[in-house]
Amino acid sequence: MLEYTELNMDLTKAQATMKEETHRFAKEVLRPASLELDKIADPQEMIDSPLFRKTLKQGYELGYHTIFLPDSYGGLATEPIETHIILEELAWGSVEFALGLGVSCFPAFFASMVPSDRMIDEIIEPFCQCSDGSIVGCWGITEPDHGTDTLAPFTPDFSDPSISGQTLARKEGDAWIITGQKAAWVSNGTIATHCLLYPTIDPSMGMAGGGICVVPLDLPGVKKGRPLDKLGQRALNQGELYFDDVRIPDEFMLVDPESYEAMLDVTLSTANAGMGALFVGVARAAYEEALAYAKERIQGGKPLFEHQMIKHKLFSMFMKIEAARALSRNAMVYNYSNTPPLVQYSIAAKVFCTQTAFEVTNDAVQIFGGNGVSREYPVEKFFRDARAGLIEDGANDSLMITAAHHL
Which of 78, 338, 344, 378 has its CA 20 to 30 A from that of 306? Predict the structure, then answer.
């Protein structure tokens, strides 16, 4: 495989080493595991497989599950540009494992923003110290009747009292009672031990009347659905969560309706910036495979790369990836370093980078020709993975409308 060169003029030696080490893990562990797991038809069989658990454990052993957490609790404590580098490299190997590791830290990450002694002792430190994948977080926000509309803070419809969430939280003494359902798109949902849950507390405020809490998923009243059977990113476990009068301590409710929209803005800015980095990695993976193939595959008596149309297509792919990385890195560096974040830049990064990944993986399949639709080569998987990115973490069409309100 040809080595990909990017504009890394400002990276320190430590950052360059971090990039190389993460790439090695992605190449030697994540890529082979994701390709093998993709062949398993039953999603339950997939997550029960020793390979899935072993791969997740290897990511934990290297601390990638703590990427958003400070070193004071044992997290990786990466700078924003380092976070981008790691996410891109992990996704180059397997976007589904990169997403799973990133989402896993959400309960501990948000708890670290408002840390109480109890949250530190019971949630944050145990997660950071976990190296075997036995503590897994998930993010429960979408519902059967609510998808990207849950990610539209500070827009007019978000405060419409006729539109509110289906998962409810009510205060009873020194506890909160959770009822309702989160949809099948809860990443890590059926393997998680803890959920960062976004319930509705005050329906009269519409979607803006929400809260954010940590829910241990071994509590009475919690039920999990089956893993979702998906087109792409098949090793990213997703599934429903059901809550039947689940009782959590008052301290586990991190955010109330008064600050919900502001914290949802932080959520969206963090997650969408991360999505930008991840899908630069997906696009790069497909581009590298296509470039190497074009220099080896003979058609018309010469390598594909010597045909002008192929050169043109490959250079277009190269330009898109470099533009996507430049936008997503800058969005991440700014929004991970400033409060309040400028959510429109994170959304721009998510939309542009996932669209770039979709276009680049599509071109890669085309360059491979008939081989591109064969499972003998990885580009068809990259294409399926990229297609999912246009919808997950907010459908691009709707996210753009949300971002437009901030212009």
Answer: 378
| pLDDT, mean over the chain | 96
Whether residue 5 lies inside any domain: the answer is no
Yes or no: say if 46 and 52 are a contact pair by the CB < 8 Å rule.
yes
Are residues 299 and 254 part of one domain?
A: no
Identify whether 306 is part of a domain: yes
3-state secondary structure of 12: coil
Report the C-alpha gap between 172 and 93 in whole angstroms.
46
347: three-class secondary structure by DSSP: helix
Does 173 have pLDDT greater than 60? yes
Residues 86-134 pLDDT 10s: 999 999 999 999 999 999 999 999 999 999 999 999 999 999 999 999 9
Please identify which residue in the block is written with the tokens 């071994």: 218
Confirm whether 232 is domain-assigned.
Answer: yes
Which residues have C-beta within 8 Å of that of residue 49, sequence separation ≥ 6?
37, 40
- Per the structure, the count of domains in the chain is 3
Q: How many CB atoms lie within 10 A of CB 229?
A: 13
Q: Which helix (H) or strand (E) holds 139?
A: strand 137-140
Q: Tokens standing for 341? A: 């974040």
Q: Is residue 166 part of a domain?
A: yes
Q: What are phi and psi of 177, to 5 degrees?
A: -110, 125
Give the model confidence (pLDDT) of 354-391 as tens digits: 999 999 999 999 999 999 999 999 999 999 999 999 99
